[in-house]
Amino acid sequence: AGVRLIVGHTRSVLTAASIPGTESDGYLLLSPYSNGDLVVGRDDGFFSLLPPAEDQAAALAGHAVASGFSSAVCVFDPTNLAFSQGLSESFGAVFESAGGGILFSVSADSSDPVGIDAACGRIASAAPDCVLLTGNVVYTAVIAQRLRAKGYGGQLYGSDAAIEPSLAANGGQAVLGMVFAHIFDAENLGPEASGFAEAYERRFRAAPSISAYLGAEAVLVLAEAARRDRSPAGVKRALLAGDFKGLVGPVRFDAEGDAVRPYLLMELVESGFMVLR
User: Fold this and answer.
1) 3-state class of 159 per DSSP?
2) Closest Cα to residue 133, out of 106, 96, 113?
3) Is residue 44 within a helix (H) or strand (E), and if so which, with residue range?
4) Crossing angle (nearest 10°) for helices 81-97 and 53-66
5) Cβ neighbours, 10 Å, residue 65
6) What single string gives the DSSP state of each residue in 184-222?
7) Looking at CB atoms within 10 Å, which of 17, 74, 132, 246 has the fewest?
8) 222 — phi, psi (to 5°)?
9) Would you give the distance in Å from CA 137 to the centre of its chain?
């Protein structure tokens, strides 16, 4: 019998919409990027290379608490609620449990400049110690720039969806100093990572992004699982049963198919994303 395997999707909202159909048709889905609350924590045919978004939120909120911040605002992307709303709520829960206060949460669509301007004006007037932005590169860059233009000078936090080399180019000075959480540590990659990076640079004339590493890692993990057990149900058993050598680091899944990997804090500086050690 053939093994039906899919690598994808890039956004949690797309993954959440596809799971019922892929599962009923007997497909196994491994996403390099999707980890929102609506797609994790369930025993189904979905696996993620990223740990649940709530773990990411806890890491960011922990940094805010350790920094002495007592007030925050969460900005979530309405086009990807399967990820952004859960990340905002989880951040708020951890932050408030440590004594902080969420002044408010606001939905802001980056394609709506009037709405963005109003939301950023409200945030600047409230002057929270920190703001969490939950969207992708363009989303984060647009809102960060508007916040700075409105005079907001507090700490900005971003989601793993915005951790790409193009963020600094899109956001300029507004995004420098932002803090993120991710599993990627350029100084502690898997043994196969250097070979992948060299091959990638030869072909594309650019260094691989974190997304490129994770995309390739998803293919390698699925291929190894299929090698261990080629039956349709066997790939799932193989993924759940053992550890895998990934490009970003060791890969292990819990009983629900969610990755068990630690989040690291990183700051965007002039030279790129720097892990905070």
Assistant:
1) coil
2) 106
3) none
4) 40
5) 17
6) --TTS--TTHHHHHHHHHHHHSSPPPHHHHHHHHHHHHH
7) 17
8) -65, -40
9) 11
Output the CATH code of domain 5-51+188-201+210-251.
Answer: 3.40.50.2300
pTM (two decimals): 0.87
Give pLDDT, residue 57.
Answer: 96
pLDDT of residue 98: 97
Tokens of 158: 């971003």
* pLDDT tens-digit readout, 205-254: 998 988 899 999 999 999 999 999 887 688 899 999 989 998 988 999 99
Listing from the earlier edge strand, what are the strands of the sheet with 28-31?
A: 5-7, 28-31, 46-48
pLDDT band at 13 (very low <50, low <70, confident <90, very high): low
How many Cβ atoms from other residues are within 10 Å of residue 62's Cβ?
Answer: 17
Hey, do 5-51+188-201+210-251 and 54-182 end up sharing a CATH topology, with the first three levels equal?
yes
147 or 194, greater pLDDT: 147
| Side chain identity, residue 218 | A
User: Alpha-carbon Rg of the chain, whole angstroms?
Assistant: 19
Q: From CA 247, how far away is CA 221, in angstroms rounded?
A: 10
User: Domain limits of the chain?
Assistant: 5-51+188-201+210-251, 54-182
Per-residue pLDDT of 168-192, as tens digits, reads 999 999 999 999 999 988 877 877 8
pLDDT of residue 37: 61
